[in-house]
UniProtKB/TrEMBL annotation:
Keyword terms of this UniProt record: Membrane, Signal
InterPro entries: Bact_OuterMem_StrucFunc (IPR050330), OmpA-like (IPR006665), OmpA-like_sf (IPR036737)
Superkingdom of origin: Bacteria
CDD domains: OmpA_C-like (cd07185)
Pfam families: OmpA
Domain OmpA-like as annotated: residue spans: 55-175
Full protein name: OOP family OmpA-OmpF porin
Record's signal peptide: 1-22
Length: 175
């Protein structure tokens, strides 16, 4: 991981339009490497260097007490495969670099403070999933919600809005 920018954001796109089309996605039993991740096809959603995959959410979900898997927009096994991939990458990630999960919404499912709250719920759901699957709580900073800010898709189409309903792992200062 050379030549990394000072601030690096890694998508964990909640709902896997990513993995569904990934020819190079490793099987769950394989140990991913950060080198392999640079060649990972994220279905048009990428970051620099694009280490983590992520998942996308159904509109307005998760809601009160709902399990993460039922709130994701892709079939459970597809979404869990991507989360497991990210989990394995995170296990290899340098322990001295603080990481957090950040969440986002589209512009149609909510407005104002409700979007911030929903994006925080999404980030918290992935944060809690990581902890329940072996990542130390001390390793993760508090989840952060950005609401509908920073869209990666066009909010005038359902496909674009679906891409914006996401959460991902980031590290470095929150810009």
């Amino acid at each position: 991981m050379k030549n990394l920018p000072a601030i690096l954001v890694i998508p964990l796109v909640l709902g896997i339009t990513l993995c569904a089309s990934c020819a190079n996605h490793p099987t769950i039993g394989e140990r991913p490497s950060l080198d392999h991740a640079e060649n990972f096809d994220a279905g048009g959603y990428s970051s620099e260097p694009g280490d983590f995959v992520g998942v996308t959410f159904k509109s307005a979900e998760p809601s009160g007490g709902q399990q993460l898997v039922t709130a994701l927009s892709e079939p459970a096994e597809t979404a869990l495969s991507a989360l497991r991939y990210d989990l394995k990458l995170l296990e290899q990630f340098p322990k001295n670099i603080a990481v957090r999960v950040v969440g986002f919404t589209d512009t149609a499912e909510c407005s104002g403070r409700a979007c911030i709250d929903l994006s925080e719920v999404r980030a918290r759901a992935v944060h809690d999933w990581l902890i329940s699957n072996g990542i130390s709580a001390a390793r993760l900073e508090k989840p952060h919600g950005f609401g509908a800010a920073r869209p990666v898709g066009d909010n005038t189409s359902e496909e674009g809005r679906a891409r914006n309903r996401r959460a991902y792992i980031s590290y470095g200062p929150i810009p």
